[in-house]
Automatic annotation (TrEMBL), chains A, B:
Organism whose genome encodes this protein: Actinomycetospora succinea
Protein name per Swiss-Prot or TrEMBL: acyl-CoA oxidase
GO molecular function terms listed in the Swiss-Prot or TrEMBL record: acyl-CoA oxidase activity; FAD binding; fatty acid binding
Residue ranges occupied by any Acyl-CoA oxidase C-terminal domain in the UniProt entry: 535-647
Pfam families, A to Z: ACOX (PF01756), ACOX_C_alpha1 (PF22924), Acyl-CoA_dh_M (PF02770), Acyl-CoA_dh_N (PF02771)
Amino acid sequence: MSTPSSTDVTPATVAAVQLALDGRWHALRDEVRARDDFAHLRVDPDTGVESYRAAVGEMLVRLADEGHAVHGFPVAVGGRGDIGGSVVSFEMLAYADLSLQVKSGVQWGLFGGAIQALGNAEQHARYLPGVMDLSLPGCFAMTETGHGSDVQSVHTTATYDAATGELVIDTPTESARKDYIGGAARDARMAAVFVQLYSGGERHGVHAVLVPVRSDDGEVLPGVEIVDDGHKEGLNGVDNGRLSFHGVRVPRENLLDRYGTVAEDGTYSSSIESENRRFFTMLGALVRGRVSVSGSAVGAAALAQTIAVRYGEARRQFAAPGSDEEITVLDYLAHQRKLLPGLARTYAMRFAQNELVEMLHDVQTTREAGGDVDEKRQRELESRAAGTKALTTWHATATIQACREACGGQGYLSENRLGQLRADTDVFTTFEGDNTVLLQLVAKGLISGYADDFGHLDTLGTVRFVADQVLDTVAERTSLRQLAERLRAVAPGRDEEDVRDRSWQVKLLDDREEHTLDGLVRRLRPARDKGISPERQFAIFNGAQDHLLRAARSHLDGLVLDAFVRAIDACTDPSARALLGKVCDLYALSLIEEDKGWFLEHGRISATRSKAITAEVNRLCLELRPHARALVDAFGIPEAWIGAPIATGAEQRRQDEARAHAASLA
Amino acid sequence: MSTPSSTDVTPATVAAVQLALDGRWHALRDEVRARDDFAHLRVDPDTGVESYRAAVGEMLVRLADEGHAVHGFPVAVGGRGDIGGSVVSFEMLAYADLSLQVKSGVQWGLFGGAIQALGNAEQHARYLPGVMDLSLPGCFAMTETGHGSDVQSVHTTATYDAATGELVIDTPTESARKDYIGGAARDARMAAVFVQLYSGGERHGVHAVLVPVRSDDGEVLPGVEIVDDGHKEGLNGVDNGRLSFHGVRVPRENLLDRYGTVAEDGTYSSSIESENRRFFTMLGALVRGRVSVSGSAVGAAALAQTIAVRYGEARRQFAAPGSDEEITVLDYLAHQRKLLPGLARTYAMRFAQNELVEMLHDVQTTREAGGDVDEKRQRELESRAAGTKALTTWHATATIQACREACGGQGYLSENRLGQLRADTDVFTTFEGDNTVLLQLVAKGLISGYADDFGHLDTLGTVRFVADQVLDTVAERTSLRQLAERLRAVAPGRDEEDVRDRSWQVKLLDDREEHTLDGLVRRLRPARDKGISPERQFAIFNGAQDHLLRAARSHLDGLVLDAFVRAIDACTDPSARALLGKVCDLYALSLIEEDKGWFLEHGRISATRSKAITAEVNRLCLELRPHARALVDAFGIPEAWIGAPIATGAEQRRQDEARAHAASLA
């Protein structure tokens, strides 16, 4: 593979790489970038919770006034009908203030999204215009104090009273409080409340009901109890709170009833007979929230890396041998190791995220247009959303942390943004689905081959599932397999072979996925033996839980590499392709290096090759070092949005001054 | 190895384990635990920077009034002369508020410590009483904006003016500002300023000078410029700021002159001829700060784990198969994997920290008593302080993060403390020495065998050093080697052997250390070839930088295991020994598992054995699960200090209520 020298990377290269990273919605990204007011959507970090919330509230009004909300809503109610665009424009807010971003996500993505996905046409017409223009501030009340991951077990009830035609909402215990609800503590007038629906003395499973919680002038309504969640590690501009309901009555028409409705006489009906299936269909319709969080994580990682790489290029420390000139810290291998494999991973995550957004857009656009979406495709979307969100959010946590450490004391000052980025994004790994639970969902999809009964995302649902299903055939393999076959030209894995050979890298990841999955199925199979006790079933499942998580990760690593390869294929600029190829090598090889224990343990690589991989990661760090700035520039974050003084010239100015001073003494 | 059933772990066991963890200063720990007012030393997290600083200022006065400061200072000036005790009592403050802890560390550890370590007896008598009773609030001005890690290159100057008998302090450029200086922004009246000392037209290297910065009524003095560092990611109760000096004059007597002094006529003299050696002797005298940060990291990790384990024992999620009862989250293997190996590591870190504090105490007590301290012993202390601090602070960052994720949304609420613990401790990995730089210091000590010229901690000092020294003999091996030899009874590494065999674990870590170090020396040796260019020298060093860091870590892992084994040996309670043995197994095996790629690559373990290690880590997690609460109880954090509602009964109460409600419906 040829090595582009630094002169090979021109502004045109950067532009071509940016186009690749921007993906299908590149024009929308440019539209958002052109908004110079966007840089001012930030809040003094020393603001207390109440004034931070107030500032975010005002900025949200501004965003609404400027039409930021319209992207994802139906054209019929004044939206743009651009579902992918709504996710992308949301992602761009990560460069402004993450509280503002999450606040907008609550209003337009979760609250508005619930009405859009679960409501009928009349409800759309009645509520969505107010959602978009913020005249109806709302919140999304799903999670309960006692039930975060296991949403199907929520304990809040809505009981239909046929005598009055009303639903009566109740919070039976403290565990059943709706908790961490963004918008609840201060702004929301209405909540989309997820309840167990009862009518005619029967339970019909989880449904969502619109419940007014505050009057137009902000007074909490009778029967509604709101407790502030108070100060949080981050996202303090979002007013999270706890909602309880005590005999609160709303008209029957407030039930979001696309998937299940109650007639005036209390008769329940639904187009989906199985309660379980209905539940997962509803959850599946809400997948956009998870995709949005994933995008935000990628955006935050890109911003942190932009700051850390720029500082690493300006900062110098320790004089070079035989010289008075100090060495630029990014020239140290240890510093490159801290930043560059993570940067390659952000590229990989962005490409995977772009594919996820496209998939979401295509599936949901088809459905909104009344078209038919193959159930398998819907399940794939859900699985990919779950898995991508887990990878991107964990990546954001790890890489922003690495960036903070790489910037030392400067990284700890709030003016340089890294600390707040870390704190604000920290909750991403556990909200919109706890990552560990999400990986189990992915693994289950792989085991079941996206079978019809797929969907119950709890861990023990998996046990039952495994007990019920035929496990002899593993799911159809992913596209990685096809890629592996397409790329496979030479026999893989010989020591003399180039570790930068893409087909070898792909084959290695594909092998790991296949082997891990096969082993998992073998370990879980005894759980379906006849007469096995529930305790033993649990023990089998639990003993293999780390294997299950590994299987999910192996699968996802493959999907991500696949997306990276496709993005390179789609790029037509030769120097951009060459640069992206190296970044992809660094991504793939550092991934393999990280898990070299597994590859060695399973005879997939030799000791010699394992050492060669480490050497090659070091070599790629050195090769990409001259292009580090180009690589972060290609994220296309407008200069005015970056904000951190260490990334915008302060360090360089100081270095220049110190050098001039030294010269004046000499 | 016998498995203690849960009934084997009695309150007496917990007490015995606590005694082992408490170490030599257990009585002092109990003395601090008995202070019930200690629980109230915390600040509302929604407090703005200024009021947080004010609150911390008041709490510090209270600590001073109660004699918290006296431990480490000489008896001659009213202290207790208990150096180890000063570190231990500092560590205990981690359970209160970390801003308060760091603020106390600035005043008594850094500012007071500089006067104590670098000043003469007259200076002790003059300043230390005011340091202890807070009538002289000070700060420690070493780090500059442009020089964090490379302290030897500070640019601030102190020029002796023989005409007036004064030292003139100057900040020549913005890079030379003293930065991140705790106490500078608000409270400090005096600064211990690290400067390049000039007299008679010559530079004499780095020295410390006491410079008044504010008047008694808090006005900034003429020629002193103070800029607030503003809001930070954490530790916002500490008033960090930037100090610049413009022709500030102080009497000659303000030079802290134990290691170098200027006579009235400007003649410079020092008991240490080499400037380099003098500098590192001074730095070495200040090692207590690093030891203290390390202790604080261990305390913060222990507190986070106490919270997460208690919540994990109360929290239930997802019904068990064939049951309505939900499963306690700590019963899931994935949850155990998140928390228990980290808990074992905190045990290991505490034992290593205890040994470090003893070593510090013994070395410095001997020296303060006028006794002779072997230079090699001093170097070992510095190396161990650097390495232990790197390990403990990275561990704190990782494990508090894991605890936050394990507590989900609850972990994100400030009332549950984990977010603030993370944010407050984050800077520990880069202050008091950047961890990556510290590991290089450790590695260099290993290569040079603590040779006389040891000490220059910059990375390129290493290059020069390597070029100058004979590298054919690696340093004497650590005590791990002796332990390995003592324990070595059977041939190591056979697959049928018990992976819980301590001698095998020790041998494995010892082998890795030896092999890594030997390889490093081979890689660096060409740097001392005659006629080699500086560029090539740097390239050789830089290309091996990851190897260098690995060598340091390998060495330190051995020291830590060694400390753990010694702590078990010293424990006389049989059930405590058995429990500690399992925790040590989990520590050692999860460490080996984490680096199994290396052990496989180098033929130290077979693939079969590698898989057996993973299985054994899982088994140990299941075996230790019933004792998780006992293990965190043994940290001995008083109930009133824990503070987090999720750890002090709130979740259990909710579970009980929900269960009673379900029963009332049935």
